[in-house]
Specification:
The protein is α+β, with helices and mostly antiparallel strands. It has one domain. The protein has 8 helices and 8 strands, in the order αβααβββββααβαααβ. A hairpin with a 3-residue loop joins β2 and β3. The protein is globular, with a radius of gyration of 19 Å.
């Protein structure tokens, strides 16, 4: 290869990241989700090691999400013990005082991820998924009540309050793309139907490592 060719290839490698962000209209992003039947055989929540302290700053993933999403910053004492503060739970349009009434929800639940491809992942990749702080949509602080109502259901089985549906569908689709997860046929049809009612909604995602 000529020197010019080498320089051109080098420039391309520098300017085109391996995991570049992609942005698609919501309906296009939903249409691009791969379809596969789900199988929960072998699932155990403990296969997704979660609430770790990845950066060793004393705060678990749960605490990091609470700190990031607080509308009024909580007090932090000792080994990242949180008190006071306020949060907005967008699933049910509710403000929550203090962290005790909150759960940190995996927007695409761990069991759903397992069904959709994570059963084939390494333990390390499942841990990264369960503690994904690289995309603010992956983990959300919501009321314990709404999180437990949702449980491990997909959008064909559970949705948040009406005003939040388009956001939920877009975020669900983004997380599925980020982690290269499939959807089952009923889930795909539900997402397609819901996306049709959410015009001009973009979906941006960066594929996870």
């Amino acid at each position: 290869m000529s020197l010019a060719g080498v320089l051109a290839a080098t420039a391309l490698a520098v300017t085109t990241p391996a995991h570049a962000q992609e942005t698609l209209p919501l309906q296009t992003a939903v249409a691009a989700l791969p379809v596969a039947d789900e199988d929960r055989t072998g699932y155990d929540r403990d296969l997704f090691r979660h609430w770790i302290d990845a950066d060793r700053d004393g705060c678990s993933t749960r605490a990091e999400v609470l700190l990031e999403e607080a509308t009024t910053r909580p007090s932090v004492t000792g080994r990242c013990t949180l008190s006071e503060g306020e949060w907005y739970s967008w699933y049910d349009d509710t403000f929550v005082a203090g962290p005790r009434g909150l759960d940190i929800d995996h927007l695409v639940p761990l069991a759903e991820a397992w069904d959709s491809g994570a059963s084939n992942w390494s333990a390390e990749r499942r841990e990264r998924y369960a503690n994904d702080l690289g995309d603010e949509r992956a983990l959300v602080a919501v009321t314990a009540r709404s999180n437990r109502q949702k449980a491990d259901q997909d959008p064909a089985e559970w949705l948040p309050n009406g005003a939040a549906i388009c956001r939920y569908v877009a975020d669900w689709t983004a997380v599925k793309h980020r982690w290269a997860l499939s959807v089952d046929p009923v889930e795909k049809q539900t997402l397609t139907d819901l996306a049709a009612g959410c015009p001009d909604v973009p979906v941006s995602f960066t594929p996870a490592d």
